[in-house]
């Protein structure tokens, strides 16, 4: 199935709703309805409109006007021991519970990693848990061992990621050692 790339600057209310519906299904939260999730997407769109540079994108598989698989790529300028680097932050990777196991998660993550392969970002960076890390490792991601901080946060020495493991893509050389400053919240 084709993967569509939706630039956050061009999100329509219908697209925001489709993404919001899936996110609300996969990560239900009593205080966040599907409409709230859609509004979050539109807020992201409003915030970014008019800015120059790489925009966040959603990589999606659509079936019958529903987004059934999703991955967000959020460009983030991080500070490393080798200087500043714009990485592709991977977030909100999910497949509709009714269609898991059909290769759709792999499709959207491969499309996100494809942006790295095409040279748009030197690396993708993201967090996950031990249950799902194998899914990403199969696609070429490897864990990172760096201390990760957010110098702009309330606790500048606290890791801004909250999940069990941080991964990068691709593996191999070029990833800096030492502290990584996300210069913003985790994603
Ligand atoms: C993780 C998730 C996106 C996988 O989506 P999916 O569409 O079912 O995955 P795919 O069908 O593309 O699976 C691709 C491969 O990964 C494997 N895989 C799927 N989920 C896995 C997991 N949790 N751990 C290890 N491997 C996994 C599949 O077996 C398949 O392997 P194969 O090609 O050897 O058969 C989906 O289970 C999901 O939405 N989970 C809830 C949200 C979540 O945890 N997202 C990750 C946040 S970091």
Structural account:
- The chain is of the alpha+beta class and 187 residues long.
- It has a single domain, classed as 3-Layer(aba) Sandwich (Aminopeptidase).
- It is built from four helices and nine strands, in the order βααβββαβαββββ.
- Strands 1-2-3-4-5-8-6 form a seven-stranded mixed β-sheet.
- A hairpin with a 2-residue loop joins strand 2 and strand 3.
- Helix 1 packs across helix 2.
- The longest helix has 15 residues.
- It is globular and about 45 Å long.
- The chain binds coenzyme A.
- The site of coenzyme A (COA) has 18 residues, from strand 4, helix 3 and helix 4.
Strands, count: 9
CATH class: Alpha Beta
Write out the CATH superfamily name: Gcn5-related N-acetyltransferase (GNAT)
CATH architectural category: 3-Layer(aba) Sandwich
Radius of gyration of CA atoms, rounded to a whole number: 16 Å
Topology summary:
Elements: E1 4-7, H1 13-26, H2 34-48, E2 57-63, E3 66-80, E4 83-95, H3 104-117, E5 124-128, H4 133-137, E6 142-143, E7 148-149, E8 165-169, E9 180-181
Parallel strand pairs: 4-5, 7-9
Antiparallel strand pairs: 1-2, 2-3, 3-4, 5-8, 6-8
Helix pairs in contact: 1-2
The structure holds coenzyme A.
Residues 26, 69, 93-95, 100-106, 128, 131-132, 134-135, 138 line the site of coenzyme A.
Provide a brief overview of the structure.
With 187 residues, the chain is an alpha+beta fold. Helices cover 26% and strands 29% of the residues.
